[in-house]
Amino acid sequence: MIGAMTTSVVLGGNKSVKNYTSKEIHVEGIYLKNGDKGKQYRKIIKSYNDLKKTKNYVKNNFNSPKKYIKELNKYNKKFFKKNALIFVTDNVDVNHSTYNLSSVEKGTDRLIVNVNKNITLEPGMSTTTVVKYRTDSYLISVKKSKIKKIKKVKIVYN
After folding, report:
1. How many Cβ atoms from other residues are within 10 Å of residue 153's Cβ?
2. pLDDT tens-digit series, residues 101-134
């Protein structure tokens, strides 16, 4: 039997990861209204217009959109003159696991967001039959000049 928790709680904080400033957002449950567990949302927001489109998408497709919109509203036109925002969201199984953004790497055409997954299950114990999902989202601020050729964002779990 597989179940999913859908209450909404947002936690997070700002931190720097090797020349990038990031904000982590954790929301209980699956982020998409249709409940697609395997889907990641990855968006490179390079302008204020891109931000408005992203907020509209979030408003219409995400569970608990107000939580995300509140964070996205912190970015204005002035921010996008020299900066861009990477918005990454993924549904993760949090039964006996924790996730932390560990690094952001720039490839030739993509930005790689590395996330450490730590198993907290004690030896000899088994997981529960009910799966608890959480949405982990990262808002990563970058200088536009550093990502000119970047077209894609990839999440890698270590």
Report:
1. 21
2. 888 898 888 999 999 888 777 777 776 666 677 7
For 17-63, how does the pLDDT look when each residue is reduced to its tens digit (9 = 90+)? Answer: 566 788 888 777 778 877 665 578 899 999 999 999 999 999 998 88
Question: Would you state the structure tokens that stand for residue 60, as one six-digit string?
Answer: 């219409």
SS3 86: strand
Bridge partners (DSSP) of residue 43 are 87
If we measure between CA atoms, which residue out of 16, 9, 74 comes closest to residue 45?
A: 74
pTM, whole model, 2 decimals? 0.78
